[in-house]
Amino acid sequence: MVAGAAFLLGCSHGKAAPEKPGPPPAGSTGPSAPRERREADPPASDPSKKPPAGYKRMAVGGIAPSEHGSAVVLADDDAKVGLLIFVGGSEALSIALRLEHKKYERPLTHDLLDNVLKKLGGDVVSVRVDRLEDDVFYGSLLIHKDGRLFEIDARPSDALALAIGNSAPVYVAESVLKQAGIDIEKFDMKKLIEDDKALPGGRAGEVEL
Predict the structure, then answer these.
(1) pTM (2 decimals)?
(2) Do the domain assignments include residue 184?
(3) Which one of 36, 63, 94, 165 is most buried, counting C-beta atoms within 10 A?
């Protein structure tokens, strides 16, 4: 986690969503655009490696409440550049719990995914926020298994939950940061909490595909 990011952004890790996960955000669904083959990521255990070309390494700084839901806060190592992604209630709950290293007695959806991956011998290498189109963030999950690297289309909210649970790095495309990145030192988080339209681009990422 980025040191000091949660404090600078006024986020809350401890206030998880209600015990019963809320419904996923409504919105259109459909296949993602074809992805180009990219350079394989290094294992998550090797922090000395640089991010893939065209990406910046970020970390989850916390969950920010807003008038109409919750936003995941991503920040760079210097806590200067940020990105806010609105997520549904169940995803916000899972991310908040994982940030606090807490679990329910029975596995939630992301716990189930973790367990399935482990049973099948797969490791989460990294997650990415690849692009922003029509106020929707698109992401990917990179899995290593038996010497092969698999890139799987994923909503950023789900991918981020898995990244936190597996201590995997998070990369955000520089093109996404140019479109929706914020200056943490100047951004008014209080205004976001009162009116999420304060976010550049409106409620970008509220519906993820």
Answers:
(1) 0.70
(2) yes
(3) 94
